[in-house]
Amino acid sequence: MKAKVAGIALIVGSLYYVIAEAVSATFFNASIFNTYVFHTISELGIPNGNSPLSWLMNSAFILIGLALLFGYFYKFKDHIVKRKVACSVFAVITALGVIIVGLIHGGNPLTSGYHTLGAVMAILGGNILLVIISKSMAEFEGYQKFTLTLGIFGLIVFWIMFFNMESVYMPVFERLSVYTLIVWSFLTGVYLLRE
User: Fold this and answer.
1) Chain centroid, CA 45 distance in Å
2) What is the pTM of this model?
3) CB within 10 Å: which end of the chain, N or C, has fewer?
């Protein structure tokens, strides 16, 4: 029963995130294509005229962070047999990072440093978490291999983004490095439901 509850929480959190971003992007002050390619996810969360549904995007950040915390500590941690402390620490870092992004908006010189810190905690911490988890479970089969692939892909794209912050396509790199965690959350929800 605990596995099903944790699984549903992760699935709901990841689906809510994808839908909330899509709806927020639809109402952003740019075409849907330009929003996804040329505007960062954080821009969708800035409460101004460009993003009338910023509250929706920020709620998605907070919800996926809470879903990760709950799903991990309520049940998923039971599947970790090695590096338990490292997995728990990075789960907390990742979840808190996403929640910080939802609570402290970008674009404000007074708080942008905290927002950036939250983003790094979420993106870098999240992809490191996936790599560690993939090697910390009892078996290394399909789920673990896919988790490892997501983590490595996310880390590569994160570093491409990090060294190309001025690139017009930086938002694409950002999304690719974030979506690995969203995909993993959904996948893990399904994994727990099938338990």
Assistant:
1) 14
2) 0.93
3) N
* Residues in Cβ contact with 142 at an 8 Å cutoff, skipping those fewer than 6 apart: none
Q: What angle do CA 177, 83, 2 make, to 5 degrees?
A: 80
Question: Which residues make Cβ contacts (< 8 Å) with residue 85, sequence separation at least 6?
Answer: none
H or E stretch at 149: helix 142-162
Q: Which two tokens stand for residue 59?
A: 């709620």
Looking at the structure of the chain, the number of domains it has is 1
Report the phi/psi class of residue 107: left, alpha or beta, with left for phi > 0 and alpha for psi in -120 to 50.
Answer: left
User: Residue holding tokens 């800035």?
Assistant: 46
And the tokens for 121?
Answer: 């905690």
Q: Compute mean pLDDT per 10 residues along the chain, 195 residues long, and list them.
A: 94 97 96 95 92 96 97 95 96 97 89 92 97 94 96 96 91 96 97 91
Domain region containing 154: 2-193
